[in-house]
Amino acid sequence: MLDVLTPLAHEAGDLALSHFRNLGRDAVAEKGPLDLVTIADREVEALVTKRLRQAFPEDGVLGEEGGHTRGTSGRVWIIDPIDGTFNFVRGLDDWAVSIGLMQDGRPVAGIVHAPAMGVTLSGGVDAAPLLNGRPLPPLTGFSRDRALVGVGLGQSVPAPERIEMLRVLMQDLGIVFRHCNATTISLIELATGEVDGHVGYGESAWDVMGAWPVLTALGAVSTVDWARTPLDAKLRFVIGKPELVEACRSLGREAWLSPAAP
User: Fold this and answer.
1) pTM here?
2) What is the DSSP letter of 31?
3) 237 pLDDT higher than 60
4) Which segments are annotated as binding site?
């Protein structure tokens, strides 16, 4: 499957890069506060959807920019054409193309390609986790005294709740956080050991699906049960090293969309 996904992600990344290098005011439209969509988003999603439909005609496809093709196989491809659009339009390198596959209620394969950074993360249930084509080691142990997590702060969650989550992380749990404004990049950092986990508040399935199966293959656990989670839900979750996820449960069970899968 990666023999299809890898060249596709790079083709999509090259298309996005061609726009990134020629950013103009006319290419940007507002979807909402700090939520931007570009011509590049639409073109990349159309390209990825077309290629996936050609390669896997019986599969469904769900894209962030509104594309939804139902399939008959029970498999669904989930696309974020450019995760980190705000970074993209500001000329920052922290953005990526994300393609993930759901089968029988669980993420099974995915790829995240960050072309401006020269980084590609791929793998899943039947494919070894790879970074730029090289095998990744399992996640290392958790050290509470130097814990670090990435955070995603979606606009769908009221600001007071996002602020309270950050307060609990810093004050109650003593965990340092970083926010790069691109979930895919934060999840790559988890895969490479730069952070111990990721706390998502208000993110969507397309933000995470490309990296999710790679992370679980590396030993990450989460608070999401995908079999009971609608693909259009706004997610509140933790994914990462088991000890980190357990520590973050003290943020309050009501804060998570669903309990951890068994």
Assistant:
1) 0.92
2) E
3) yes
4) 64, 80, 82-83, 207
